Amino acid sequence: MLKTQSPPASTKLNIASALGKSDQFDGINPELWIIEGPVIRARRSEIYRASHPNFHTRLCIKNSKVGERSTKSLKQEYANLKNFSQAMIDTPFNVPRPIACIPEAGLLVMEWVNGKSVKFELNKRFKEPKSRQVLIKKAARWLKEFHLKGDIKTEKLVPQALTDQINTYRLNNPISFHSIDIIVIKACERFYREAEQIPVTQEQYSFAHRDFTPGNVIICDTSVLGIDMTQNIRRPVFEDLTRFLVDLNVNKSIFLVGLQILFPSPRGWLLRDERTILTEYLGDKAQEKNKQVLLFLIMHTIKKMIQAAEIVSTHRQTIGLKSPFLLLYRYVRYWKRRMLLLDLYRRLK
Predict the structure, then answer these.
(1) Could you tell me the strand order of the sheet in which 34-41 lies?
(2) What is the mean pLDDT of residues 76-88?
(3) What DSSP state is assigned to residue 23?
């Protein structure tokens, strides 16, 4: 069960008032909305559940946090949900049904669905490898259906498609000059060299999710739903596949990551989770794409390292030793990402 709590009176009032001003809820008394939550807290938003005696559907309300609100992003997410809820309507793989977008209040309103995220289910079954593979396959099948409806086409994949992402991410996540930051810079430089060596190939491109993680795939009784599609861009399909895998890797215990370093896999080898999602998505062609997959995994892991290094730098400067255990936790997260990157480079060679 999701944990629910009564939201602050001001939040409840703001949400009810915004719903009352929306044309989709015209004629419905805003004072009778029953608002629970936040039932889910994320970095940029909170999820509330709402019901009304005169409205037949329970609502899922995504409330973007102040400072993180983007009218363009909310409108784009609403448009994506409308397009894909229709395009995927005849399949068990879909998205939540959108009901309203209220960008001035930072609200996106969808139909509430009863389900659990793949991330939650994977954490619950971390000692059940067969159950984990079933969940990963469901996520892969949702992504494949999503990409098919997003119009898959073959396009040229050039090294710049990979290196530009690292450059953009470094610009958006500046880090101070420090020993760990030098490691990140050297990791980026090595990646540039590796990426430049790959030949220009023809790969599948489609409408990209851009945040395809285990937390953004919901398993329901008879369906699988994807959430949090806030952009409108075409990218190689490997990008979404490997984004999912990197999130699985960084959530491993540091003990398991250490074992990967002590007992390295052979060159060109993919781990079980990597093979599972790739085979489910690509079928017989999966083995031909190992190097491309490893490069995309490295790209996403470097982005995770940049993010972790920026957090460590900020924490060290603003909090310092006032919270030593939290600072140690930040350092452990950073070094775990570096260990994962080392394992990936060894498998790439």
Answers:
(1) 34-41, 45-52, 55-64, 107-111, 98-102
(2) 96
(3) G
